[in-house]
Write a structure and sequence with these properties.
329 residues, alpha/beta, Cobalt-precorrin-4 Transmethylase, domain 1, five-stranded parallel β-sheet, four-stranded parallel β-sheet
Length: 329
């Protein structure tokens, strides 16, 4: 009788088509940053110190803490040590490595190479005497790091299209723009178009600053959002690229677009009566949580999975040269 009841309960699960976006989850920069922490722990033992969250994901941070990583807000929170000190994937202002050098710290820089590219662009424009505009979100660690490459006031921040319309350059020596790597592709295109219309001679990056992973994940969400009744984005509320995925799903016509960190946060009351859903993950969210969410859906629905692939990613970033040299010895 219990077997019959089990069979009936299985049959009674409502059907659900779950579209899984691809690409999703870890990008090359995040993967590299996590590897740096894990390999530092393996080579040099615990503790290793990490300034700020290595990436914006609580699961990742807690996992690394359990292995012996100590996360600090500032270098002043680190005692005198010969153990590795790691900078997060978001990048840091120039004052931070300068301070670390003054204390003879063994630094491993986990800054994403695509963020470092933006730093170099901003520095080059500054050295050529241009006014610099940074398109980005105030207070985000990446924006703080990019603006901190140059003297205070050298970079002006533009967050919205209205900001772009109101912006006035400070000088007459030329104008250049750079952007945060994790922005909305569509929003940024609008802002840049306004700047180019107002200032036809403005200089920009040879290749756009929004990273390949941000772009690919947004395109993947667009491909599924119009086909489903709800989209779930696995990611942190601190994660810019994850928040942009929620916005992209909404703008692409999905009635319900939700950001969750774990399966336990799924608001099932908002998913009553649905027969289709989409699932993706921000660039700092591990695949294990995607699997966790899929299993949570399987507990409540008769799930049919469909992976929707819009791009293939084969990008890999090398570990820092300093790390390889130190590890080799």
């Amino acid at each position: 009788m219990s077997a019959l009841n089990h069979s009936q309960s299985t049959v009674m699960k409502p059907p659900l088509t779950l579209l899984i976006a691809a690409p999703r989850g870890f990008c090359a920069g995040v993967d590299r940053a996590i590897q740096i922490v894990e390999q530092a722990l393996q080579k040099f033992g615990a503790p290793v110190y990490v300034r700020h969250e290595i990436v914006h994901n609580r699961y990742v941070v807690e996992s690394l803490k359990a292995k012996g990583a100590i996360f600090v807000k500032e270098l002043d929170d680190i005692p005198e040590t010969t153990q590795p000190v790691i900078f997060s994937a978001h990048g840091v202002a120039k004052a931070v490595p300068d301070a670390a050098q003054s204390r003879n710290m063994f630094v491993l820089d986990a800054t994403c190479p695509l963020v470092s590219k933006v730093h170099m662009e901003a520095t080059r424009h500054y050295e050529q005497g241009r006014d610099i505009v940074l398109v980005g979100h105030r207070g985000h660690p990446e924006v703080i790091g990019t603006m901190g490459q140059l003297p205070a006031g050298a970079v002006q921040l533009i967050e919205t299209a209205d900001d772009a319309r109101a912006f006035e350059p400070r000088g007459t020596q030329g104008l250049a723009y750079v952007t945060q790597t994790t922005l909305s592709v569509d929003d940024t295109a609008e802002i840049v178009a306004i700047l180019k219309q107002r200032f036809p001679d403005i200089s920009g990056p040879v290749k756009e600053d929004i990273c390949y992973a941000t772009t690919n994940r947004q395109h993947a969400v667009k491909a599924i959002a119009g086909r489903v009744e709800a989209v779930l984005v696995v990611g942190s509320p601190k994660s810019s690229n994850s928040l942009r995925l929620v916005e992209v799903a909404e703008r692409s016509g999905c009635p319900v677009s939700l950001l969750i960190e774990r399966a336990s946060e799924i608001p099932w009351d908002r998913l009553k009566g649905i027969s289709s859903a989409g699932l993706t993950a921000g660039a700092s969210a591990p695949e294990v949580i995607v699997d966790e969410v899929i299993e949570a859906f399987r507990e409540r629905f008769d799930v049919t999975l469909e992976v929707v692939t819009t791009a293939e990613e084969r990008v890999v970033f090398n570990l820092p040269r300093e790390f390889r040299q130190r590890a080799a010895t």
